[in-house]
Amino acid sequence: MKRLSATVSGLLLAGTLLCGAAAREKIVVDGSTTVGPIAKAFAEYFMKVNPEVSITVSESGSGNGAKSLVNKSCQVATMSRAMKQGEYEAAVHSEILPISHVVALDGLAMIVHPANPVKNLTTDQVKAIYLGRIKNWNQVGGPNTPIVIISRDTNSGTYETFETRIMKGEKIAKNCEYVGSNGAIRQRVQSTRAAVGYVGIGFLDNTVKALSVNGVLPSLDTVKDGSYPIARPLYMYTNDYPKMGSALYRYVTLYLSKKGQQMIEEIGFIPVTNY
Amino acid sequence: MNKTGDSLILSQAASRFRRLAAALMRGFLLLVTALSMAAVLLIILYIARDALPFFRLAGLKEFFASTAWYPSGRPASFGALSIFFGSAIVTLGAMAVAIPLGLAAALCLSDILPFAVRQAVKPVIEALAAIPSVAFGFFALVVFAPLLQNNGGNVLTVMVWLILLPPGLLLTYLTAEASSRGIREEVAPAVKWVMAGVLGWLLIRGLLALADRLGGVTIDSGANALNVSLILGIMALPTIVSVSEDALQAAGRDLREGSYALGATRAETLLKVVIPAASSGIVAAVILGVMRAIGETMVVWMASGNAAQIPKPWFNVLSPVRTLTATIAGDMGEADQVLGSLRYHVLFALALILLLLSFFANLVSEWVLRRHRRRMSGGQK
Fold it and tell me: Is the pLDDT of residue A49 over 50?
């Protein structure tokens, strides 16, 4: 018994030492909860192929990612929006040069209950609905029922995209319901006949109906060719362009490889390149 | 020295040791008590420290008087009035559900049902308290919200009957009895029965009319104040039942038997003797229930709709509302902790208000209990 435990602890010790010796390079990733799944999938794959590199990914929001990059507590900041002017200024001030890598595209789909006969909305109609100016489905060619508007909570990158692409700075009506995740929006819409909501394209399934916006249905192709109006790039930021061939370089350029594109599509986003 | 002297010295040493040990023990207990008090004080201090910058930068007027809650807008606005309102109406609703049901259940358990049934039923009710709130939230969102949307009118009708009928009958009985007081003894029972009949008929007709009107209501969105009120009410039930049942039990056998000996019926004994005697415990139970409802986060975040608005009209519980707790939980993520933005500090301002509210509720309960105790002891002469 004693010998067994001694062997086990010896093995453990050796294992720790080996890991410590092997993890020569460390990459810390921090930022957006939207880009987080991509960063995690990349990290998992990268560490499998390159066991000598250790990558930690945390999701504290796009703004916090930028801050971590500026005070050098991470090497990669994932962001679901571009850096703001103030963040650039703060970066340059502490001798950081943020370089953006657009790793994927994301589209927001407007969804309704499958029984809703409405098929298309224009961006102006979507805006008017969320402003509370269009209150009834019969104003946009649907049945005579009041519209129940549902939004992501104001913390999310998804909300920020909707706010910038659709609302353009105007304020959403007070009776709008807020929920905590893409999945929760889908759940509310699939069980509420009069509801309208928006989710990332990766969350579409046959329990809800995606509307075409300005006559264009959301899909990988329409987001990529720019015809679908509610889309955004997803970013990774590094300090300066990483040294060619370094682990950091190989990690942030993973999105260019075939494997990287597959992973992005599996998570439900749209790869920027097409091999 | 002789032997007795030795043992005397020994016992002196032993008693000194014992005294030292007692002092140490007392010191340790004091430390533990002080620690828990210090924890409470530190929490208040910490929350106040992060809340004050908000009031300094944004002032009080917008926070307390405006209903525009757009923490991410440019410029942002932090009107929390509708959020206070949301917490208030959800708590009121929960109490409207939990107090009549809870007190009725407690009365049944303590005085009406056989003892064996009570022994079996009470643990089951108390087990309700062990269900995690996220499970209640999931039920509210996935089962109850669609049910409200699809069969709104029927659900409302059933709820109205369940909640209004028991207190209605009680009120009928009490009014009938009060009206027969001071009338000549020969006609008093007749007056009482006629009154009870008339009032009971009015009650049933009123409820039927109400149910008729509610039956036609359609509910657009099941994630609303009514949904969470009901769920929170059920969550507060075990607290209210358990504490008030204990209070009713504690009123004692003597009191009940004394009342019966004076010729009182069981209803009279319950309403006029047992409940008044247990009222301090009942008030404590209700306030504990209120605290449970006002502090609950997960259920309201999942199923209240989180719309920062005061419904029109204000008592329209079929529209979504946003509560203090849900706002704090939901807005914490992106709130800028490092730079200390307004969006971060406003959450602490909300937390401070929540803390003050629960403090206030505690004070009120304390005051009620003390007043009640004084009156009870003064009344004995």
Answer: yes
pLDDT at position B8, please?
59
B91-322: CATH topology is: MetI-like fold (1.10.3720)
**Residue with token string 């007043």:** B371
Nearest to B145 among A153, A174, A191 (CB): A191
Q: Report yes or no: A176 at the B interface, CB cutoff 8 Å.
A: yes
Are A191 and B82 an interchain contact pair (Cβ–Cβ within 8 Å)? no
Q: Is A81 helix (H, G, I), strand (E, B) or coil?
A: coil
Domain boundaries, chain B: 91-322
Residues of B whose CB is below 8 A from A153: 306, 330-331, 333
pLDDT given for residue A76 in this prediction:
94
The amino acid occupying position B41 is L
What is the model's pLDDT at position A18?
Answer: 47
Question: Closest Cα partner for A160 from A230, A89, A217?
Answer: A230
CA B33 from centre of chain: 27
* Residue A104 phi, psi dihedral angles, 5° rounding: -165, 170
Judged by a CB distance cut-off of 8 A, whether residue A39 touches chain B is: no
In angstroms, the separation between the Cα of residue A61 and the nearest Cα of chain B is 6
Write down the ipTM of this complex: 0.76
Identify all chain B residues contacting A145, using CB atoms and an 8 Å cutoff.
220
Residue A86, classed as helix, strand or coil, is helix
Q: Is A184–B302 a contact, with Cβ atoms under 8 angstroms apart?
A: yes
Q: What is the mean pLDDT of chain B?
A: 85
One-letter amino acid for residue A47 of the chain: M
Tell me whether B152 touches chain A (CB under 8 Å): no
| The pLDDT value given to residue A17 | 45
pLDDT of residue A110: 95
Rg (C-alpha) for chain B, rounded Å, is 27
Instruction: Count Cβ atoms below 10 Å from residue B128 Cβ, excluding itself.
Output: 16
pLDDT at B45: 93
Residue A246, min C-alpha distance to chain B (Å): 31
Angstrom distance (rounded) from CA A193 to CA A113: 5
Chain B nearest-CA distance from A116, in A, is 14
**pLDDT band for position B4 (50/70/90)?**
low
